[in-house]
Amino acid sequence: MSKAMFEELDYRPSPIGTLSLRRRRRSADSEDVYEIKLDDGYLMSSLFTAGEIALADLALPGLGRRRIDVVVGGLGLGYTAKAALDRANVRSLIVVEAIPEVVEWHRRHLLPLGEAIVGDGRCRLVYGNFFGMAAASGSFEPDQPGRRYDAVLVDIDHSPRRLLHRDHAGFYEVEGLLALSDKLADDGVFALWSTDPPDDEFLGRLKSVFATAKAEVVAFDNPYRSHPARNTIYLAEKARK
User: Fold this and answer.
1) Does 48-237 carry CATH code 3.40.50.150?
2) SS3 of 177, please?
3) Alpha-carbon distance 98 to 129, whole Å?
4) How many CB atoms lie within 10 A of CB 110?
5) Whole-number Å distance between alpha carbons of 110 and 127
6) How do the domains of the chain map onto residue ranges?
7) Phi, psi at residue 180, to the nearest 5°?
């Protein structure tokens, strides 16, 4: 029996607005597209995943083949987490997600990557406020306050300027970046996804905190436009002591 061309998999109110998870097909012979909407706006779509995958693929190879511990801020549809888990040298992965429904959808396997992510023993999904954890002293794990991580990959806000909530703003300032740097191991990597072009002012802040920093532009096809879409991946490396 063929699937319906459109299906609403879940719909519920939340403290931040009405969330809906939808599956649709653009044509009878195309793959399913999964979308998460907040009220009338789109939070994410499986039609555009190149930037989320590049977040891991650009950040992690520079750490070499040693066993590494990774934190991902923002679970979403799971493409950054899955790209990290695809690397055999990732020893552990903590994924922090502020929307409990998103965590639940993965655990219920309503999303296509849910089974692979939840079933990987290296991965732990954590419901919580990534920005609050990043600003606090210690690590992302209360029971291991001194732990440091080889990479922190963040895909939550649209960009350092276009925030989902104004409370996130401090993370992108020097003080917030310094707090995050304290959670990284020596030569650890911080990577950030953005839908906007490179922001020279934010890049300058990164360079004032980290040993190196750069912005990589990732281009990918957009079926709704005649020209490629672009995301920006910021990459910053902590100095080795």
Assistant:
1) yes
2) helix
3) 5
4) 15
5) 18
6) 1-47, 48-237
7) -65, -40
pTM over 0.85, yes/no: yes
Place of tokens 């990597």: 189
Residues 133, 180: contact at Cβ < 8 Å? no
Q: What angle do CA 44, 199, 157 make, to 5 degrees?
A: 25
Phi–psi pair at 9, nearest 5 degrees = -80, -30
Q: How far apart are CA 201 and CA 197, in angstroms?
A: 12
Mind listing the pLDDT tens digit for each residue in 124-161? 999 999 999 999 988 999 888 889 999 999 999 999 99
Confidence tier at 1 by pLDDT (50, 70, 90): very low
Q: Which two tokens stand for residue 174?
A: 């020097």
Q: How many residues does the chain have?
A: 241
Helix (H) / strand (E) element for 204: namely helix 200-209
**Tokens found for residue 95:** 């994924």
Give CA torsion, residues 96, 97, 100, 105, to 10 deg. Answer: -100
Q: What is the torsional sign of CA 39, 41, 47, 53?
A: negative
Closest residue by Cα to residue 97 from 197, 195, 14:
14
What percent helix, strand, coil does the chain show, rounded to 5?
25, 35, 40
Q: Which residue(s) pair with 13 in the sheet?
A: 18
At 18 the three-state DSSP class reads strand
Q: Calculate the alpha carbon distances from 151 to 1, 55, 159, 189 in Å.
A: 44, 11, 19, 5
Q: Half-sphere exposure of 9 toward its Cβ, with a 13 Å CA cutoff?
A: 22
